[in-house]
Design a protein that fits this description.
Organism: Accumulibacter regalis
Strand order of the largest sheet: 6-13-12-11-9-7-8
Family: Belongs to the Orn/Lys/Arg decarboxylase class-I family.
Protein name: Biodegradative arginine decarboxylase
Keywords: Decarboxylase, Lyase, Pyridoxal phosphate
Bound molecules: pyridoxal-5'-phosphate
CATH class of the largest domain: Alpha Beta
InterPro entries: OKR_de-COase_N, Orn/lys/arg_de-COase, Orn/Lys/Arg_deCO2ase_major_dom, Prn/Lys/Arg_de-COase_C, Prn/Lys/Arg_de-COase_C_sf, PyrdxlP-dep_Trfase, PyrdxlP-dep_Trfase_major, PyrdxlP-dep_Trfase_small
Number of domains: 4
Length: about 750
């Protein structure tokens, strides 16, 4: 494989005609002759930014000479050298760093700095060729050490160029070359992606399905990095990881304890396994932000009471098989896992934390016990801990890259054979090898100290964004400005103490009421931005800016946000964030404010939206906000959506039985107005927020029907702002749309 990792040389004389300049350029030339690029710079400018170069370099050579140690200069020279070494080493322990200088100079370098170096190169003692060979040998050894097991094997295989007689049918990409459109595809994705797209008949790569060879070595490597006892890569997303965890431990008729605010894959798991779900109810504030499940609900006495009053669960004698909670909600709420373990060890067999949004937490002390599995975390006596993580959501994984982490208990170890039967049930027999490689590489990237530095940078950038938003408010947006949801007191700089992000009982900013002390924290890398118009009590102001308008505006200006609610939307600071990328967000929001204040015409500020929705021709930005806000306020939508999620959902059938009625067509397609009292066969999920509202087997209550009526009427009147309710079936009768839900007959 051709690798493009230059040797970076830092020498203030790099371009000068002095002896030093000539000598360093001779070294650069010798390095280039050996096939490595040498990149010379005369200074590193801002050190922290420069240190990012560690990810693209194969070695650093730093020149230092006697001049630098003249009277009075020794101290600053050593200080800057030390700072350089520290900035590199806090990201990368292994990259070779060489000092290049005159012989006498080396005695000035203190030991703590020398220790971090790969060598001191004596300027005039050896030939440039000799030194070049030495540098390149070290650089190569370093690069050779980088690739984790599976990625290494895959690149070797793809390079090898052997002819394949096995699937996939495109034979390393050759098939694509036989047609023009195929060639386009080939050119776009490139040779390597296609050569590396191999099938599981290739023995030297090992098998994902039975965890052998390089795949297994990679999973072990990742387990070590994530500090879990077992780790399994999953190539079909955390949607599949959740189903695997469930099918490995839940059977028909089992009682399971589930966060009502869960991803639909967990509800699918309930349906597929035939379990009887007993739900824990999270709090909500009137911004529509879902809060934590109060600590009281986790106490075994309270769970037991819930089971005893549940129409189907109360007859089950066995203890619940699994508890699944969303660990990091969309808005970034986390639970103290050790407290949950303490409350439920032994009472429930498996605690499953759906950490789709939290794979980064193990790599920074900031998160403490507020994630499931990590270094030095105590084992439960009896209960097993599972975490499912979407590598692709916050780390550097390809879409669908996911993993399952397991911590054994003191008394039980995971039976990997039994577990794998469930794994096989949900995994394709033709897994995508590029996804496996990305799981492997994403894990290797998080190895200390690099991983810690990456997470630290995400947190730091997220905090800088929050500070920048407050600054705008103080300097510019005094009349109105967007708020970033979070604690009121933020320090001026740096990463704060975790304590600042703990949700304290009764604080107004969160609006979740009297939470237990220390039970929850907010992950600052999730930034929920609140638009004006609604306060945390659910009261509408005279004017307001529905978030959907802001996000549509942003989309037209090249910013796609993660999720949008009524008066809030949210963005994330993944490890892919670059310094100051959030600046564009801040400036676009300022542009929006300008546009709003001046009521600029939509044809000017949102032309694409207008082209699709001619109904709003002649509107200004402010007019549009006013109208949509008015409708929301008139219908008291904030209270309505909060109430509907908190309303009593009466289970009338087991979810799996209600769902099965669909397969047998024992259902009626019931229009919205007749839904009250009927039992749904399907999941009903409004977007936003994308959290399932009603689950197969539950009855429609009046509040939910009222909401659906509102959504229907609103959608008719305001095209472009439709609330999409997944589970509603649309039909056109006499030229008018009719929305129905498939209900049990
Ligand atoms: C996204 C998500 C999933 C599913 O993950 P995919 O990798 O998209 O399949 C599961 N749980 C939660 C909480 C999620 O947000």
């Amino acid at each position: 494989m051709h690798l493009d990792f230059p040797v970076i040389i830092i020498d203030k004389d790099y371009r000068s005609e002095s002896t030093g300049g000539l000598s360093i350029r001779a070294l650069a030339k010798a390095i280039e002759k050996k096939g490595f690029e040498a990149l010379g710079v005369t200074s590193y400018g801002d050190l922290t930014s420069f240190a990012q170069q560690q990810s693209r370099a194969s070695a650093f050579i730093l020149t230092i000479d006697d001049e630098d140690f003249r009277e009075g200069r020794a101290e600053p020279t050593v200080a800057s050298l030390r700072a350089f070494v520290k900035e590199i080493r806090c990201r990368n322990e292994d990259i070779p760093i060489f000092l290049y200088g005159e012989t006498r100079t080396s005695v000035h370098i203190p030991n703590d700095v020398l220790r971090e170096l790969h060598g001191f190169i004596h300027m005039f003692e050896d030939t440039a060729e000799f030194i070049g060979r030495y540098v390149i040998r070290e650089a190569k050894a370093y690069l050779d050490s980088l690739a984790p097991p599976f990625f290494r094997a895959l690149t070797h295989y793809a390079e090898d160029g052997s002819y394949s007689w096995h699937c996939p049918g495109h034979s390393g990409g050759v098939a694509f070359l036989k047609s023009p459109v195929g060639r386009m595809f080939h050119q776009f994705f490139g040779e390597n992606m296609l050569r590396a797209d191999v099938c599981n008949a290739v023995e030297e790569l090992g098998q994902l399905l039975d965890h052998t060879g390089p795949v297994a070595a990679s999973e072990r490597n990742a387990a070590r990095i994530f500090c879990s006892d077992h780790l399994f890569f999953v190539t079909n997303g955390t949607s599949t990881s959740n189903k695997i965890v469930w099918h490995s431990t839940v059977a028909p008729g089992d009682v399971v304890i589930v966060d009502r605010n869960c991803h639909k894959s967990v509800l699918h798991s309930i349906i597929m396994t035939g379990a009887i779900p007993v739900f824990l109810m999270p709090t909500r504030n009137h911004y529509g932000i879902i809060g934590p499940i109060p600590k009281e609900q986790f106490r075994w006495e309270n769970i037991r009471k819930k089971i005893e009053s549940h129409p189907f669960a109360r007859d089950v004698k066995a203890k619940p098989r699994v508890l699944t909670i969303t660990q990091s909600t969309y808005d970034g709420i986390l639970y103290n896992v050790e407290e949950i373990k303490e409350m439920l060890d032994g009472a429930i067999d498996t605690l499953h934390f759906d950490e789709a949004w939290l794979p980064h937490a193990a790599f920074h002390d900031f998160y403490g016990d507020y994630h499931a599995i990590g270094a030095d975390r105590p084992r439960c006596k009896d209960t097993m801990i599972f975490s499912t993580q979407s590598t692709h959501k916050l780390l550097a994984g390809l879409s669908q890259a996911s993993q399952i982490l397991v911590q054994d208990s003191q008394e039980r170890k995971l039976d990997r054979d039994i577990f794998n039967e469930a794994y096989l049930m949900h995994t394709s027999t033709s897994p995508q090898y590029a996804i496996i490689a990305s799981c492997d590489v994403a894990a290797a990237m998080m190895e200390a100290p690099g991983g810690t530095a990456l997470v630290e940078e995400s947190i730091a950038e997220a905090l800088n964004f929050r500070r920048a938003m407050r600054k705008v408010e103080q300097e510019w947006g005094a009349d109105w400005w967007f708020k970033v949801w979070g604690p009121d007191d933020l320090s001026e700089e740096g990463i704060e103490e975790r304590a600042a992000w703990i949700l304290k009982p009764g604080e107004r900013w969160h609006g979740f009421g009297m939470l237990a002390e220390g039970f929850n924290m907010l992950d600052p890398i999730k930034a929920t931005i609140i638009t004006p118009g609604l306060d945390v009590d659910g009261d509408f102001a005279d004017w307001g800016i529905p978030a959907a308008i802001v996000t549509k505006y942003l989309a037209e200006h090249g910013i796609i946000v993660e999720k949008c609610g009524l008066y809030s939307f949210f963005i994330m600071f993944t490890i892919g964030i670059t310094k100051g990328r959030w600046n564009t967000m801040v400036t676009e929001l300022q542009q929006f404010k300008d546009g709003y204040d001046q009521n600029l015409p939509l044809w000017k500020v949102m032309p694409e939206f207008l082209a699709k929705n001619a109904r709003y021709a002649g509107y200004g930005l402010k007019d549009l906000c006013k109208q949509i806000h008015g409708i929301y306020a008139a219908n008291d939508v904030a209270h309505l959506t909060t109430e509907m999620y908190l309303s009593d959902m009466e289970p009338a059938m087991k979810p799996t039985d209600a769902f099965a009625r669909m397969a047998h067509r024992e259902i009626d397609r019931v229009p919205i107005d007749q839904l009250e009292g009927r039992i749904t066969s399907t999941l009903l999920t409004p977007y936003p927020p994308g959290i399932p509202l009603l689950i197969p087997g539950e009855r429609f209550n009046a509040t939910i029907v009222r909401y659906l009526r509102f959504a229907r009427d609103f959608n008719e009147r305001f095209p472009g702002f439709e609330t999409d309710v997944h589970g509603l079936v649309k039909a056109v009768v006499n030229g008018k749309p009719v929305y129905s839900v498939d209900c049990v007959r």
